[in-house]
Amino acid sequence: MTWLVSSPVSICDTNIAHFFFLFFRTINVEYNQLDPLLRTTKEYKNGDVNDKSGYSPFPGNINQLVFQLKGYNEILERTKGRMPDFVNPKYTDDTKSTFKKPTRLECMMQDFPTVLEANESKKVGYTQLAAELCFSPVKNSVADGVALQKKGIAPGTAASGEADQYAASRIILKSIGCDIKEAPPVDVNGISIVPGPVIVLKSDFACCPAEYKIKFPSPEKVKISARSTLVVRGPGITIESLDLDGALVIDVDRGEEAIVRDLVVKNDGWRMVRTSNEDVDEVIAMRGFDIDRKDARYIEVRAENPKEDDDDSAADSEYVLEEQYGCALYPSRSDMELVEEKGQGCSVM
Predict the structure, then answer these.
(1) Measured between alpha carbons, how far is 184 from 324 in angstroms, rounded to an integer?
(2) What are the phi and psi torsion angles at 312 (to 5°)?
(3) Is 0.70 surpassed by the pTM of this model?
(4) What are the CB-based long-range contacts (under 8 Å, 24+) for 286-289?
């Protein structure tokens, strides 16, 4: 929230005058401070309630802060680390006569902008993203999640958290121009989720949206069907063109490079199988489904001298030539010999 802050300044002259120097400050506002403030206004006399859109006009945030260390250190040197304190008592009921738990003096990291001066405050901003791209907690039971989803609130369950993880990759790939088909929503233990396509791009392959554009240099040539599963691990992979309808796992050791070009994969793939809570692993029961890995295409490139593995059995270097459907996985290093793909082993998932 951006607040207009008034700072009194005294001027000593023949006549003593007081005036206010006004500046804007971007700062978090805690819920226990916002609601009472809103209730003092005519427009929001009922406090922080949802408007016609179904959402609060004052959206919350995930409180993730990024500091520029040089500027941060300069402020600490000036303030000697002093920050404003506050208390936020929790009561057992509306009479506010008994504490629910001991009240403590608190100091919050998000109050850092309160110690900034006018020019410093100009360097504070915020970034807003859709929740499914940055925050999808797994913290609620299935029953609580069902109740929340009925109210139009994210359920925060194991099923929704996993689905949102896959969705984030789909959203980013779509944004750069890839052709990604979405599966229709399904019900899992009362929780509505979009099951696919399942896209798992390991962080060593791409960890931020800017890297997606590098890893998928021709996004218009990348097509993934709604029932597909794509798993990619390895920093040296570039996917130029791909038509996927099924399951594909690409696993390339660190230090090796490979380019996926004109690759067409069509197989039975992996599918979600709903489970009951009886006679299944607790984790599987929690999310409400398991994965039936019926069929998949595995492509592996192994390093000649693995840096983190002393096992001699892993010393054979491989680059893969995929001949089916007239496609090829080209090595980036010309001195490596192309060999036929062998073995179905993959430890990515």
Answers:
(1) 30
(2) -60, -25
(3) no
(4) 286/142, 286/157, 286/158, 287/157, 287/158, 287/159, 287/162, 287/188, 288/142, 288/158, 288/159, 288/188, 288/189, 288/191, 289/159, 289/188
CA distances from 106 to 35, 87, 97, 203, 324 (A): 19, 6, 21, 36, 64
Residue pLDDT tens, the chain, 349 long: 444 333 333 233 333 334 445 667 788 887 777 888 899 999 999 988 888 888 788 877 777 788 889 999 999 999 998 888 888 888 888 888 898 888 888 888 888 888 888 888 888 888 877 777 888 889 999 999 999 999 888 899 999 999 999 999 999 999 999 999 999 999 998 999 999 999 999 999 998 888 999 999 999 999 999 999 999 999 999 999 999 999 999 999 999 999 999 999 999 999 999 887 667 788 888 889 999 999 999 999 998 876 554 444 433 433 333 333 333 333 333 333 333 333 333 333 3
182 contact partners, CB below 8 Å, separation of at least 6? 170, 194, 196, 197, 226
**Residue labelled with tokens 């192309």:** 338
Q: Enumerate domains of the chain plus CATH numbers.
A: 2-28+63-121 (no CATH), 173-340 (2.160.10.30)
